[in-house]
Amino acid sequence: MSEMKHNWTKEEILEIYNKPLMELLYEAATIHRKHHDPNVVQVSTLLSIKTGGCPEDCGYCPQAARYHTDIEGNDLMSVQQVKAQALRAKASGSSRVCMGAAWRNVKDGPEFDQVLEMVRTINKLDMEVCCTLGMLTENQAQRLAEAGLYAYNHNLDTSEEYYKEVISTRGFEDRLQTIDNVRKTNVTVCSGGIIGMGEKEEDRAGMLVALSTLNPQPESVPINALVAVDGTPMEDEEPVEIWDMVRMVATTRIVMPETQVRLSAGRTQMTREGQAMCFFAGANSIFAGDKLLTTPNPDVNEDMDMFKALGLQPQKPFLKNVHPPTVEAKDSKFEALGEKPKWSRPEHKIERNEAAKTKAKALK
Ligand code: SAM
Ligand code: DTB
Ligand code: SF4
After folding, report:
1. Do the beta carbons of residue 97 and residue 86 sit within 8 Å?
2. Domain count of the chain?
3. Is pLDDT of 3 > 70?
4. Cβ–ligand 2 contact at 263 (below 6 Å)
5. Within a domain: residue 87?
6. What is the DSSP string of 13-60?
7. CATH code at 218?
8. Which residues, other chains included, contact 341 with Cβ-Cβ below 8 Å and sequence gap of 6+?
9. 68/231 Cα distance (integer angstroms)
10. Which ligand 2 atom sits nearest the alpha carbon of residue 63?
11. DSSP state, 357?
């Protein structure tokens, strides 16, 4: 167990979040320097291996089948396609590939076997492999670990209270259970959330309480600014102010000193100066590549220009945790259990999710 403070309260976190900005920045930057090299930023490349058609109702997500967005859906990519993309990412300076699938949860079978093969293939390219595939059982987490997975991304997204205003097809508890299942393996935990969904500052603090009181704390915490996509229930949300992003990054850094804080979705809306302030406040990871999962991200060359201007270096792979070995499918100790866990489905009504669904039906 780490010696981090694991009993942060919402009040303590709000007090930090609302400090005068110069003090907040100074405090966060000081903590950042104690635990990390301030000139090194980890670069991840996102790859949407299965896009769209998702049965969930996440109010922010363009991939939910029930809303009418103009993304192009795709079935699961082949291992060869994934390998080619990973090699491109590596050549552009990325040390990690994060594969995302628009699934509610992982199901045992040929598609999951194919994902395991993708993990083996990328791990053998000496890159860190991350997956974000929805909810996961312990056995599935073990199988991913055995294939060589480095990190699993599963976001809490927001506070437990506000979560009920965002998603009705699964519960906050299930998110924690999945994180716990990942924790039973050597795979590192990547979990964070989104700001700009109409939540209060209390909810931002509440999310940081939930993350920072995990023991150990997540190795990586993505802070996303909502990308408000037309057709989703959150299409009319105002863009996040840079000051909110800087405050959120700085507060995350202070309450989780050893974590890699990722400046995630929303960078296309930010100036270089704004991003520089986030790096100063303790962000030490980004998603690079001209696309996130379905929405735009800054061009890689622009990011490398920014790194040059700021004197930042991309982080080498496996700097913070060991390179996991890959066990081939034929040598696996684990077999698929075919479990069907009862993940919750609260199904309460969320007005704006219902309205977006009705609008989508009318357009189809
Ligand atoms: N389906 C899996 C799941 O939900 O866990 C994995 C993919 S999902 C797209 C991964 C994360 O992306 C979400 O938890 C959410 O935090 C983030 N995300 C999705 N849409 C977003 C948006 N429009 N703006 C910002 N972040 C978003
Ligand atoms: C995370 O926290 N942000 C990434 C990654 N984890 C999977 C996803 C952002 C998605 C933004 C909307 C889109 O491109 O579809
Ligand atoms: Fe599906 Fe994940 Fe999007 Fe929710 S966030 S709708 S689970 S792809």
Report:
1. yes
2. 1
3. no
4. no
5. yes
6. HHHHHTS-HHHHHHHHHHHHHHHS-TTEEEEEEEEEEEBS-BS---TT
7. 3.20.20.70
8. 105, 135, 137
9. 5
10. 15
11. H
pLDDT computed for residue 290 by the predictor = 84
Residue 340 Cα to ligand 3 midpoint, Å, equals: 19
**b/e string for 27-47 if b means 16 or more Cβ within 10 A?**
bbbebbeeebeeeebbbbbbb
Range of the domain at 117: 10-319+334-363
Global confidence as pTM: 0.97
170, 175, 253, 262: the catalytic one is 262
Q: Is residue 325 part of a domain?
A: no
Is 236 domain-assigned?
Answer: yes
Number of the ligand 1 atom closest to the C-alpha atom of 103:
1
Q: Which two tokens stand for residue 234?
A: 């959150």
Alpha-carbon distance of 196 to 193, in angstroms, equals 10
Does the residue 163 lie in any domain?
Answer: yes
Q: Which atom of ligand 3 is nearest to the CA of 63?
A: 3
Catalytic residue status for 131: no
**Nearest ligand (C-alpha, residue 154):** 1
Quote the pLDDT of residue 26.
98
For 298-356, write each residue's pLDDT tens digit: 999 999 999 999 999 999 999 989 999 999 999 999 999 999 998 999 999 999 999 99
